[in-house]
Specification:
The complex is a heterodimer of chains A (235) and B (241). In chain A, helix 5 packs antiparallel against helix 6. The longest helix of chain A has 43 residues. Chain A has 235 residues and is an all-alpha fold. Helix content of chain A is 80%, strand content 0%. Chain A is flat. Chain B is mainly alpha-helical and 241 residues long. Chain B has a single domain, classed as MetI-like fold. Classes of the chains: A mainly alpha (235), B mainly alpha (241). At the A-B interface, helix 2, helix 3, helix 6 and helix 8 of A face helix 2, helix 3, helix 6, helix 7 and helix 8 of B.
């Protein structure tokens, strides 16, 4: 064991990498939350063609590995773009797109697929009587949705959203394949100088454990706070 | 120059199917068998009375759950090879299987625990009161009911495991993804979109099949149960008349 590598290089590189991982996680989630909600409503309302399209896309995104999706987008997309650039004579270099763009694209699409299912189950958990009761006291459809149904659905979706956030944070360790230097990427580069891979991965292990465990405890606290707003079990 | 070659896509699917059966499916099945043994032991620890064992099982699950699969795989691959140099000679697939087993046993233990807790206590008490022994009550009354509750989670776990084996290519295993990368490299990335789409297609079909199987089993069970209930109520009515 090369202890010197761990505390001289490893910890510093890991701390430098943490913001990158969190950045990718947060941006992808911020893109995915509204998108997933819209998709869920489309599915829930059974909008004729869109609903089927979304369900196929969700099944594809959830049924294929994230690595394969990364390679499709990161390796396949530039060649299509390059072909388009050549045919239409655009003044644009297809291979100079920032890898972060690809990362946001892949991760936000992947999370959107999961969140669509989460929101859909949350919406169907609210129960039809709530909507009927809201309409019967004189709210219009829009008001009933905004004041009665969506708040209740969001409360029941929060544990799943937190879970998805943790999963996303863990899967951002794959972004090093797109040359983005997150925790894993930074330490892999540092380790390759002296073949200190074991030490590097022990540092990554500890960093992910601390962050993941801390977030899990934080989310548990949020969920406990949210329980106040939950509807009482119907008797 | 053609931007997308459909023929290439469909021709490369058959090339990727043998590695699926030889590597991915084999990995998943062995993992499921070994992982369910360890998962059962962990679930026993979690449900048992010993505080020490319970704490141990829960903390292990917490640690594993906060780990990315990739990091665990690399840690075992480089770490075990460093401390036990003899292991460098064995097939790399064992490292992937070991990682899968570690993750699967934690997840399976959680699935088993939640399914066991979902069964009402009165079932166990009723079984004991009609004279079954504790082990009989478990194997004949509680576990069959718990198995059906666990079914959807089990399906998700299986799909998740199939998808996670795709990361095996990072340590040089030629599964579906690894073979796709190999073919792609051999052709200097001329058809990289098609070959990765072909790999995605295989994974997609497999996960659809798993979802259909577990969904079908669930539906069968529900129908079976409804028929039994209807039968019971009919016989009861007959008695009353």
């Amino acid at each position: 064991m090369n202890w010197e590598f761990i505390y001289r290089v490893g910890i510093i590189e890991a701390i430098k990498g943490v913001p990158v991982s969190l950045y990718v996680t947060f941006v992808s989630l911020l893109i995915a939350l509204p998108l997933g909600f819209l998709c869920a409503i489309t599915r829930f309302r059974r909008v004729p063609v869109l609903s089927e399209l979304i369900s196929v896309a969700v099944s594809f995104l959830r049924g294929t590995p994230l690595v394969v999706q990364i390679f499709i987008v990161y390796a396949g997309f530039p060649s299509i773009l390059n072909y388009m650039v050549q045919t239409f004579n655009w003044n644009f270099d297809a291979f100079s797109i920032n890898p972060y763009v690809y990362a946001f694209f892949v991760f936000s699409l992947n999370v959107t697929a999961t969140l669509t299912e989460v929101f859909r189950s949350a919406l169907s958990a609210v129960g039809k009587d709530q909507a009927e009761a809201a309409r019967s006291v004189g709210l219009n459809a829009f008001q009933a949705n905004c004041h009665i149904i969506i708040p209740q659905a969001l409360v029941s979706a929060i544990p799943n959203i937190c879970n998805e956030f943790l999963n996303l944070f863990k899967s951002t360790s794959l972004v090093y394949m797109m040359t983005i230097q997150d925790i894993t990427g930074k330490l892999r580069i540092a380790a390759s100088a002296g073949y200190n891979y074991t030490e590097a991965y022990i540092v990554i292990f500890i960093v992910y454990f601390l962050l993941g465990f801390g977030m899990e405890k934080l989310f548990q606290r949020i969920e406990n706070n949210m329980k106040r707003y939950k509807a009482l079990p119907q008797t | 120059m053609q931007w997308f070659d459909w023929n290439y896509l469909f021709n490369s699917v058959p090339k990727l199917i043998p590695p699926f059966f030889q590597v991915t499916l084999l990995c998943v099945i062995t993992t499921l068998i070994i992982g369910s043994v360890f998962g059962f032991l962990l679930a026993l620890c979690k449900l048992g009375k010993s505080r020490l064992l319970r704490g141990f099982a829960y903390s292990i699950t917490d640690i594993i759950r906060s780990m990315p699969f990739l990091v665990m795989l690399f840690l075992l691959y480089y770490g075990l090879g460093k401390f036990f140099p003899k292991l460098n000679a064995i097939n790399k697939i064992y490292f992937l299987e070991l990682t899968l087993i570690i993750f699967a046993s934690c997840r399976l233990s959680e699935i088993m625990r939640s399914a066991y807790e979902a069964i009402d206590k009165s079932q166990m008490e009723a079984a004991l009161s009609v004279g079954l022994s504790a082990s009989q009550a478990l194997t004949r009354i509680v576990i069959p009911q718990a198995a059906y509750i666990a079914l959807p989670n089990l399906g998700n776990l299986l799909v998740g495991m199939v998808l996670e084996t795709a990361l095996g290519f990072t340590i040089g295993i030629y599964d579906v993804m690894g073979t796709a990368k190999l073919i792609n490299a051999r052709e200097y990335g001329a058809h990289n979109l098609e070959i990765y789409l072909a790999a995605a297609l295989i994974y997609w079909v497999v996960s659809l099949i798993i979802a259909a199987l577990t969904g079908g089993l669930e539906k069968m069970h529900k129908k079976d149960r409804r028929r039994k209930q209807v039968g019971q109520s009919c016989s009861r009515k007959g008695e009353a008349a």
